[in-house]
Prior knowledge:
alpha/beta; 2,3-Dihydroxybiphenyl 1,2-Dioxygenase, domain 1; four-stranded mixed β-sheet
Amino acid sequence: xxxxRINTITAFVADQDKAKEFYAxxxxxxxxxxxxxxxNRWLEVVPGGEGTSIVxxxxxxxxxxxxxxxxxxxxxxxxxxxxxxxxxxxxxDGPDELPWGRQATxxxxxxxxxxxxxxxxxxxxx
Length: 126
């Protein structure tokens, strides 16, 4: 068995409609799927329309909204992305220059937290 990719990350959210608005309108993610499967709504968004997606799902029993942390999102223009987030009312820390590149942090309305990062310096990855 070989594991060779991450298909989907799940972010638990309290209100899927509110989350959809934030991820689609504020972050500019494409909605890959929005359908009811059994008793659950499968709401899947993806930056740039391809790659690893985020499922915005109601919390499973015993879980709560807002527990996702450490996901790093890439941007070719961190400053413009930060300005857009702030204009939409999001709290953003940064952007800051760090040894591995320019980055900022923010959270969605439920408290799921993300790092927004410019492409890392080429020598950092060696």
